[in-house]
């Protein structure tokens, strides 16, 4: 059953976390929250890649628009929008994303497309460690997330095909998993702000440091804390400020020591109270098994891959995407140069920058 507008508004207000807090996180109610429909689908006895089973895996989602079926009875207008680490179903209702894409005549016009915005396992109001299992919750990864999304779509929403999958950050990585695991399920893929390799080097290092920072806080108590381990959560969020930052914008907007320190204090005051320590550990560690590099040739549909040159998490000097895009038959990679419009890792949500490229992808992937 759809929830009230006030309920969706509150979801928007808590959409900040490890990767989204500094990437154009929603700060207020917008018009899309007033018409989005909220739903839940429960998968019984969901088995995770570790072999663990959860008797009931609850998945939350929002939808905008109306599903349509073609003459053969297949869904032909559904778009799956995948949020970043620590986000929720409302994250991509952020105005810098939704106001640019969802309106009349825009690339994802909701009078034409059926938009589906899930909250992944461990996030939003989907099943997560803080529901009661704490560190006994199954150790999910991106493969589990994608498989649960596919079950929710087909069995819960009766969507058997997707016009597009667009994913940001963690959703970007899930898009690659989707393209390899279900290559016929979608017409196009738009992964924004990620790499298609195992998370190693500095990317894994800072995630590992954030996780260990929480675990090393005596208040964590092996995950059975009575109050949140604030010291550990604060340290993890301090790393997130750096990881999600855009140096040009930070220098421009905080040009003095006082302003820089004020930004940190205000950012932490906003984000730290929204974090559950166990949930954080799980969703940051969910990337541990990710590595689509060996099977990129399985992706058959047109793919638009966009990274930004000021992205700390996916630095351009690695040169990985430029090489790997050659392995994807219909892939196109764009490295956005640093400009006054880019926002570091958060450029993935700033749709005005890449809107025209998305329009091109939708045109080239149309059914003839």
TrEMBL record:
InterPro entries: AB_hydrolase_1, AB_hydrolase_fold, HAT_MetX-like
Every AB hydrolase-1 domain range: 78-321
Principal EC category: transferase
Gene3D superfamilies in UniProt: alpha/beta hydrolase
Protein name per Swiss-Prot or TrEMBL: Homoserine O-acetyltransferase
GO MF: homoserine O-acetyltransferase activity
GO annotation (BP), single: homoserine metabolic process
The keyword Endoplasmic reticulum is annotated on this UniProt entry: no
Residues at the catalytic site: 169, 311, 345
Highest classification ranks of the organism: Bacteria, Pseudomonadati, Acidobacteriota, Terriglobia, Terriglobales
Signal peptide location: 1-23
PANTHER family: HOMOSERINE O-ACETYLTRANSFERASE
Domain of life where this protein originates: Bacteria
EC number(s) from the headed UniProt entry: 2.3.1.31
Protein source organism: Granulicella tundricola (strain ATCC BAA-1859 / DSM 23138 / MP5ACTX9)
Keywords for this protein: Acyltransferase, Signal, Transferase
């Amino acid at each position: 059953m759809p929830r009230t507008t006030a309920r969706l508004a509150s979801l928007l207000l808590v959409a900040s976390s490890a990767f989204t807090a500094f990437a154009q996180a929603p700060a207020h109610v917008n018009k899309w929250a007033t018409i989005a429909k909220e739903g839940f689908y429960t998968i019984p006895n969901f088995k995770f890649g570790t072999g663990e089973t959860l008797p009931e895996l609850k998945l939350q989602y929002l939808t905008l628009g109306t599903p349509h079926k073609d003459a053969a009875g297949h869904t032909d207008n559904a778009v799956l929008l995948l949020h970043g680490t620590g986000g929720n179903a409302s994250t991509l209702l952020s105005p810098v994303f939704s106001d640019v894409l969802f309106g009349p005549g825009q690339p994802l016009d909701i009078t034409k497309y059926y938009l589906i915005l899930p909250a992944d396992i461990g996030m939003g109001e989907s099943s997560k460690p803080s529901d009661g299992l704490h560190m006994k919750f199954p150790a999910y990864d991106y493969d589990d997330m994608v498989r649960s999304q596919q079950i929710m779509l087909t069995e819960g929403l009766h969507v058997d095909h997707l016009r597009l999958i667009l994913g940001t950050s963690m959703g970007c990585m899930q898009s690659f998993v989707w393209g390899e695991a279900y290559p016929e399920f979608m017409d196009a893929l738009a992964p924004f702000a990620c790499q298609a390799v195992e998370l190693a080097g500095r990317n894994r290092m800072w995630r590992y440091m954030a996780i260990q920072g929480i675990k090393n806080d005596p208040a964590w108590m092996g995950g059975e804390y009575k109050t949140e381990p604030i010291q550990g959560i604060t340290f993890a969020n301090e790393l997130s400020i750096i990881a999600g930052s855009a140096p040009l914008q930070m220098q421009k907007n905080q040009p003095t020591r006082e302003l820089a320190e004020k930004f940190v204090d205000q950012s932490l005051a906003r984000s730290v109270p929204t974090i559950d320590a166990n949930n954080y550990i799980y969703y940051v560690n969910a990337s541990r098994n990710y590595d689509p590099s060996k099977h990129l040739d399985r992706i058959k549909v047109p793919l638009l891959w966009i990274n930004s040159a000021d992205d700390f998490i996916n630095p351009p000097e690695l040169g990985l995407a430029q090489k790997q895009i050659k392995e994807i038959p219909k892939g196109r990679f764009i490295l956005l140069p640093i400009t006054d419009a880019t926002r570091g890792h958060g450029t993935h949500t700033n749709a005005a920058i890449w809107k025209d490229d998305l329009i091109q992808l939708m045109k080239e992937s149309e059914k003839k």
